[in-house]
Amino acid sequence: MRRSTLTLLLAGGAIIATIGAVAFAQDMQPPINADEVKWGPAPPNIPAGAQIAVLAGNPASDGPYVVRLKMPANYKVPAHYHPKDETVTVISGDFHVGMGDKLDMQKGLVLNAGGFGAVPAGMRHYGWTDGGTVVQIHGNGPFAITYVNPADDPSKGMTKASD
Question: What is the Cα Rg of the chain in Å?
Answer without folding.
Answer: 21
